[in-house]
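SEQUENCE-TO-STRUCTURE ENTRY
===========================
Question of interest: how does this chain fold, as expressed in backbone structure tokens?
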Amino acid sequence: MSANPYPLGLRLAGRRVVVVGGGAVATRRVPALLDAGADVLVVSPELTPALRAHVDAGRLRWEPRRFAPSDLDGAWLVQAAVDDPAAAAAVSAAADERRIFCVRADDRAAATAWTPAVTRHGAVTVAVLGGGDPRRAMSVRDAVRALLSAGQGPRAATPGAAVDTSRRSGPGREPAAGRVALVGAGPGDPELITVQGWRLLTEADVVVADRLVPGLLLDELRPDVELVDASKIPYGPSRAQEEINRILVDRALAGAFVVRLKGGDPYVFGRGGEELLACAAAGVPVTVVPGVTSSIAAPAAAGVPVTHRAVAHEFTVVSGHVAPDSPASLVRWEALAGLRGTLVILMGLKNLAAITETLIAHGRPAGTPAAVVQEGTTGGQRSLRSTLGAVAADVVAAGLRPPAVVVVGDVVGALDG
């Protein structure tokens, strides 16, 4: 009889953790390591776009090559996130030589450490080990999360409060009727997904995720869930969207429950409507779960309300991904310049100089307060205050980068003391 594992909370802040592999498993595991403050090194010839975004933001280091035993020198923990048993065994052997605990995605029995099923509720982290059975651990974890979400502990729970897993497909279950849920994941903080959105995510057989969805949500998926990184799909934007639509329909018609997990809200510049129409044309039922949009949440997190009594009675949300002078633009920037309320611009950093020049040229005063919030509601949040005439140059000088929300209007200083 094998011994029970010893549960332990690792304090990894500033300590080296090596992740071998740059695919879907690593994409799911790295966010929790970053959340713990670990000094993460990823060793892999290739990375998913989600991991590359972490590299570009300076949150982790990447060695674009195959694993070498010396990669573990100075490490406290290693995760072998590869499906090649020989490669994973080489990582295990190097870890054993250095007395470093090793998590293996390919073979739990050969690992010296297991990754538990985790749920987070404010300052409380609950980690569940299911004796080597990930489904059992997930089921218990989901029940605990439901109780924590109720806010009053186990005695407040009612029958059915735990997550219903009866509709899941898998070994020992009848295939579920195929369906799709378009779920808004919120602006970046994993706790800002709705209760319904999280519940559907725990039931999913397939998750098709944007690069802007909170990584910690992916860390909570069942290990048998198929994770499709939508930002990795090739071709241009239109062809990529066609491929996403095809994946949603094909997986659902095969009997899977598919969650299309989208940053913010599915319909706010998220092309969720196109996905719904594609599913409807194929006869696939769709559930739409609204999400907290960054257009409101990111400014709020930076102390900027989009409306305020006696300051602004309106706010307009506009996409800035197309330049104002482009024939493809559908925005009447001259009309927006004449509004007195708040203007919120998403996806506008690339064209910010042209946008601000156009607004000023059509009458919006150059001294109008402006703010930019990068990665709002996350640990990487940065913000700056400026004016309409200077904000484009200030963004460049500060090194701000997408994703970012631009706010123009007197509300920028409404809450200042």
Observations:
- Residues 116-163 form one domain.
